[in-house]
Amino acid sequence: MLYGGCLCGAIRFEAGGTPFHRTFCHCETCRRSTGAPVVAWFSVPRAQFRFTQGIPGRFRSSAHGTRSFCPQCGSQLTFENDALPQEIDVTTCTLDDPAQLPPQDHTWTRSRLDWVHLADGLPEHDQARPGN
Question: Mean per-residue pLDDT for 18-42?
Fold first, then answer.
């Protein structure tokens, strides 16, 4: 089981199952929603994820997705894609131990900021990874 929560501690969650789609996302929406140049995410089966404390805010960030966040401190927590209702994406660095799930690739690199230089050797996908 993975455990995590927001910066202020008002929201807590747990995620089970085997994490997949461990990625660095470079899309503009992720950047703007977090204020960071890149965001690390992982996915788990939706049925294996639950909030255990607090009630997150929700924001429809695009025509196909909804993000959750802490209404007190603003930490972004999850992303749900309407086209993939069986999975939920979780911001890796909201885990109590984010070091246990290092990203395995980069997605949406066509949106990457020019001053972000990738030198980690991980696979790069111009958009979403194939099959996603």
Answer: 94
Tokens of 122: 């991980």
CA 12 to chain centre: 15
Reported confidence tier of residue 128, pLDDT bands at 50, 70, 90: confident
User: How would you classify the pairing of strands 65-69 and 105-107?
Assistant: unpaired
Paired tokens of 130: 């194939």
For residue 77, how many other CB atoms are within 10 A of its CB?
A: 22
CATH for 18-111, among 1.10.530.10, 3.40.50.300, 2.170.150.70, 3.40.47.10? 2.170.150.70
CA–CA gap between residue 118 and residue 34 (Å, rounded): 20
pTM (2 decimals)? 0.92
Residues 71, 44: Cα–Cα separation, whole Å: 23
Decide if 8 contacts 70 (C-beta within 8 A). yes
Mean pLDDT of 68-88: 96
